């Protein structure tokens, strides 16, 4: 009997620890499917962040490494410079990639490191319990912004993709969302392209994935999907911000 | 015919690292170690290696983490304020049990301090580098030749124990030119690197991490690290004794300071003072046994450091109250003179 659906080879049997309605699981699956389809499981090294996805090394059935908070792009640089023929990706949240690790993110992109970053933007700190993230929207409540983010005090939400798209070394920058089946499909295409860009040695590739955090947003999973659509997408527009055309 | 060539300490360490098989170097500029990365930038690419100037010390040490995890012999170098920035990464490297060599050409602190030679990072190097229960092996050369020899040994110690090793010098060791010889040394037998991440081709996957959420796992891991450090105490203690046979006073000093102390001892001996030197070469593991033994022989100790008194605490621990341990320090970035040390020595002997 033909199996029409199943667990991607590049995921382990370990059950995800993510909260109900969290979209990390979807993105893990997409990354694993892409690795399977490109047939690069045995040449890929993944780097887990500090944040909700810190245990990603238990979920991806790959050589994996856990890095300090915000440092995955630097760690990935070290690995890639030793094994330029291997595939290296970082999987990072908004605190990791856009706050404490901003310097590492910007400079890895600027150097055009041949690595791929999957950047989960859910506009909140998840693991530590709902603090304000660099990507928290204006007016959005967080434990450290109890009256909502006041841009006069806390500044403005950081649009990482727009910022990094200005850099020569970042050759592929796309923002996707996983709130609908159609967008999940588009997200997978973008992630695949970001890995292909690396396989071709073209430069740094970034896919920002708008993601939900029902637990810390204080919403049900369905409400969270609606909130993402209504609030995040207007500020974080979807699409390829920078592309290299077709990559085969 | 001698194969000696005249080299600056910083450059000689870089050359020794390359000869030890170091293929990757990641660093960030800071005085007084700049000749070391510059030498690497010149030489490493010629040999198929990689030199990369990182955007920060933080990034540099995390590149070291990645390159080491990927299986390379890797080095970074810096000076005190930069080492403080690397401290986070060093803790992760130790926690993940990765080998690497870190050079610290110490300058006087705290804060931005000055650029003069100093030994004020002894505590940081040997005890308080960063959060968590871990140690570095710390080697402190007192000459360019010894810096070369220890650099080679540092890579082997790092691989043997899967632990970061620090070469601790200062501006004098780094900037001074001396004749050096790069001796051909056979590699010791080292454990196979079967733990690296390079894509799990035809083998079980490897995971490199320092996170251990289960208390029993972390407890076991930390005791495992502790046993490595105990093993270092057994096998990696390095020191020099000079004129200790008949000594009534022992001066304990390391690195640049020990060189000056040697001159002071020569002058003291000419005056009939029976003084000898114990020079720790490995600061961790600390040569406590030789100091403990000397406590049975000498009347008192004098520790001389370019700090307000750091290694002296380890000397006192080793002496364990059996004899008095005096201290003389120069904490501002100046090397003490032999005359100053001689005055202090006479004062101590009264």
Describe this structure in words.
The complex is a heterodimer of chains A (248) and B (350). By secondary structure, chain A is of the alpha/beta class. Helices cover 38% and strands 17% of the residues of chain A. Chain A starts with 23 loop residues before the first helix and ends in a 6-residue tail after the last strand. The model of chain A has no long low-confidence stretch (mean pLDDT 97). Chain B has two domains: 231 residues, Rossmann fold (3-Layer(aba) Sandwich), CATH 3.40.50; 111 residues, Rossmann fold (3-Layer(aba) Sandwich). In chain B, helix 9 links the parallel strand 11 and strand 12. By secondary structure, chain B is of the alpha/beta class. In chain B, helix 3 packs parallel to helix 4 and helix 10 crosses helix 11. The chains are: A alpha/beta (248), B alpha/beta (350). At the A-B interface, strand 1, strand 2, helix 3 and helix 5 of A face helix 3, helix 4 and strand 9 of B. Strand 2 of chain A pairs parallel with strand 9 of chain B, so a sheet runs across the interface.
What are the salient characteristics of this protein?
heterodimer, A: 248 residues, alpha/beta, Rossmann fold, seven-stranded mixed sheet, 10 helices, 38% helix, 17% strand, globular, B: 350 residues, 2 domains, five-stranded mixed sheet, 12 helices, 15 strands
């Amino acid at each position: 009997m033909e199996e029409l659906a199943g667990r991607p080879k590049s995921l382990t049997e370990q059950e995800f620890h993510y909260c109900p309605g969290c979209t990390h699981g979807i993105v893990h699956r997409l990354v694993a499917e892409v690795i399977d389809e490109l047939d690069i499981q045995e040449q890929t090294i993944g780097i887990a962040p500090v944040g909700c996805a810190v245990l990603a090394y238990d979920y991806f059935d790959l050589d994996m490494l856990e890095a300090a908070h915000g440092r995955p792009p630097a760690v990935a640089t070290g690995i890639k410079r030793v094994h330029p023929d291997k595939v290296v990706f970082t999987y990072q949240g908004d605190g990791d990639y856009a706050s404490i690790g901003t310097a590492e993110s910007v400079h890895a992109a600027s150097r055009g490191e041949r690595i791929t970053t999957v950047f989960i933007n859910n506009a909140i700190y998840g693991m530590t319990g709902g603090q304000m993230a660099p990507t928290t929207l204006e007016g959005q409540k967080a434990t450290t912004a109890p009256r909502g983010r006041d841009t006069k005090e806390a500044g403005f939400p950081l649009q990482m993709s727009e910022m990094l798209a200005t850099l020569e070394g970042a050759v592929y920058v796309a923002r996707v969302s996983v709130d609908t089946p159609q967008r999940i499909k588009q997200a997978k295409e973008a992630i695949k392209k970001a890995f292909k860009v690396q396989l071709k040695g073209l430069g740094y590739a970034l896919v920002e994935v708008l993601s939900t955090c029902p637990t810390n947003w204080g919403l049900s999973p369905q409400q969270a999907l609606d909130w993402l659509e209504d609030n995040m997408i207007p500020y974080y527009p979807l699409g390829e911000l920078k592309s290299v055309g077709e990559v085969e | 015919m001698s194969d000696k060539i005249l080299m600056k300490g910083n450059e000689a360490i870089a050359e020794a690292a390359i000869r030890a098989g170091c293929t990757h170097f990641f660093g960030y500029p800071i005085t007084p170690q700049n000749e070391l990365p510059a030498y690497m930038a010149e030489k490493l690419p010629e040999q198929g290696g990689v030199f990369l100037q990182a955007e920060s010390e933080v990034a540099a040490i995390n590149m070291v983490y990645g390159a080491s995890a990927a299986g390379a012999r890797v080095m970074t170098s810096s000076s005190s304020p930069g080492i403080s920035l690397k401290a986070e990464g060093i803790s992760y490297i130790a926690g993940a049990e990765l080998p690497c060599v870190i050079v610290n050409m110490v300058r006087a602190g705290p804060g931005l301090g000055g650029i003069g030679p100093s030994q004020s990072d002894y505590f940081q190097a040997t005890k308080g580098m960063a959060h968590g229960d871990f140690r570095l092996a710390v080697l402190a050369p007192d000459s360019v030749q010894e810096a070369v020899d220890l650099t080679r040994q540092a890579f082997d110690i790092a691989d043997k124990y899967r632990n970061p090793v620090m070469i601790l010098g200062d501006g004098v060791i780094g900037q001074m030119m001396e004749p050096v010889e790069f001796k051909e040394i056979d590699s010791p037998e080292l454990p196979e690197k079967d733990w690296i991440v390079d894509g799990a081709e035809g083998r079980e996957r490897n995971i490199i991490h320092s996170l251990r959420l289960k208390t029993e796992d972390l407890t076991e891991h930390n005791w495992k690290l502790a046993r490595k450090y105990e093993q270092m105490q057994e096998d990696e203690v390095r020191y020099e004794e000079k004129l200790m046979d008949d000594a009534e006073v022992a001066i304990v000093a390391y690195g640049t300071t020990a060189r000056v102390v040697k001159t002071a001892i020569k002058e003291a001996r000419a005056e009939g003072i029976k003084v000898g030197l114990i020079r720790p070469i490995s600061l961790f593991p600390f040569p406590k046994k030789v100091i403990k033994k000397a406590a049975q022989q000498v009347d008192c100790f004098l520790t001389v450091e370019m700090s307000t008194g750091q290694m002296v605490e380890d000397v006192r621990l080793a002496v364990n109250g059996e004899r008095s341990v005096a201290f003389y320090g120069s904490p501002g970035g100046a090397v003490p003179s032999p005359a100053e040390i001689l005055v202090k020595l006479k004062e101590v002997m009264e």
